[in-house]
Design goal:
The protein is an alpha+beta fold. The chain has 2 domains: 191 residues, Beta-lactamase; 111 residues, 3-Layer(aba) Sandwich (Beta-lactamase), CATH 3.40.710.10. It is built from 11 helices and 16 strands. Strand 4 and strand 5 form a beta hairpin. The radius of gyration is 20 Å and the shape is globular.
Length: 380
């Protein structure tokens, strides 16, 4: 039996910043077991603000914000707060590629040189399938860090990014090894633009966002003022400090790997559009979510999930769940019968400095607990 919650609420814990310590403390009684679980997880991770949405077959069962979207102003987070979703962006890139496959404009197994004429011979064995499965042999960080931090009007253009990427030697022969790489999704974004005749952002907006009704979803623009946007933070030596992808990649043109902003509510609309077949057909979705095998027959296993075409796939209580997590504490689970969206403003920041964000285990745990509580009521 499914237990339905027909309201959208905010549960506002209090973030206390005392000295160098950031403490996430509960200031309201949890409404139910799911609230209690989420609050405990957020408390232990030191999350300033978050939003969670759970839906089942078109019906929203749970939609709630926690804590603060902006600590300085103590602005409350809600299910409609705009967060940086980081690598969840890759799902939109992967879906766009599959749309072009349906349109007959993209062949996953042809060289990318068919679509990107600047492709050198050294990279001509790469295909769109390699890019989707992170098996292209590319270095992950293909960009010049100094160009990322330029003022927004001094764009780090697609052409300049291509030149910098193609100047790097491959780490492995395309198709032979898995190496998670932002570079691959950047290249796929270029393929999408060149194949469709639109910009990458223009294609995603017209073919996905508009069709799904995702009015609060957009692309990072360092100069744009976005209503209800959350401030990003990270934990650095237990202190809460400001950190955002927008600030660290402000000049990057066409960020197809981590460049989107969205809300938990909008991402649930994305799930619904997929579930109802308004974006791609079932055959195409099944092909997109088929597990990828390496030449030795093994799967790419990331602990919780296995790699498909741009999506990570796992089983949760008998449901095929396709998902992706993001550097900013984001997670999107698109399952057979339900969806779970978890967004936060606690990012992983700079690895070199030991910054801490929302652990992947917490995000997967929330999805698992949602199934246990909402879909298996009476069995837990």
């Amino acid at each position: 039996m499914i237990r339905t919650i027909r309201y959208i609420a905010r549960l506002v814990p209090l973030l206390l910043v005392a000295g160098s310590e950031a403490v996430f403390a509960q200031s309201a009684e949890p409404a139910d077991d799911f609230d209690r679980y989420i609050l405990q997880q957020l408390d232990e991770a030191g999350v300033p603000g978050a939003a969670v949405v759970v839906s089942h077959r078109g019906e929203v069962l749970f939609a709630r914000g926690y804590g603060f979207a902006n600590v300085e102003w103590q602005a409350e987070a809600t299910a409609r707060t705009v967060f940086e979703i980081a690598s969840v962006t890759k799902l939109f890139t992967a879906l766009s590629a599959m749309m072009l496959v349906e349109d007959g404009l993209l062949d996953l197994d042809r060289s990318i040189s068919r679509y990107i004429e600047e492709t050198p011979q050294s990279h001509s064995a790469i295909t769109a399938r390699h890019l989707l499965t992170h098996t292209a042999g590319l270095e992950s960080s293909y960009y010049d860090p100094q160009k990322l931090l330029a003022p927004a009007p001094l764009r780090y253009t697609v052409e300049a990014q291509l030149a910098d990427l193609f100047a790097q030697p491959l780490k492995s022969e395309p198709g032979t090894a898995h190496e998670y790489a932002d570079a691959g999704m950047f290249l796929l974004g270029v393929v999408i633009a060149r194949s469709s005749g639109l910009t990458y952002e223009g294609f995603v907006r017209s073919r996905i966002l508009d069709r799904a009704g995702m009015t609060q979803t957009s692309f990072i623009d360092a100069e744009r003022v976005i209503p209800q946007r959350a401030q990003g933070y990270t934990l650095r030596r237990s202190s809460l400090v400001r950190w955002s992808i927008g600030g660290t990649m402000q000049a990057l043109d066409q960020n197809a790997f981590a460049g989107m902003l969205s809300t938990a509510w909008d991402l649930n609309l994305f799930h619904e559009a997929l579930r109802e077949g308004r974006l791609i057909g079932q055959e195409t979705e099944d092909a997109m979510l088929e597990l990828h095998r390496l030449p030795d027959g093994s799967y790419v296993d990331a602990g919780y999930s296995r790699m498909a075409l741009g999506w990570w796939v796992r089983d949760i209580a008998g449901n095929r769940c396709a998902s992706h997590l993001g550097h900013t504490g984001s997670a999107f689970f698109h399952c057979d019968d339900f969806a779970v969206v978890v967004l936060s403003n606690l990012t992983s920041g700079y690895e070199m400095l030991g910054d801490q964000g929302l652990p992947a285990s917490v995000r997967h745990g929330i999805a698992e607990r949602a199934v246990e509580i909402f879909l298996n009521d009476g069995k837990h």
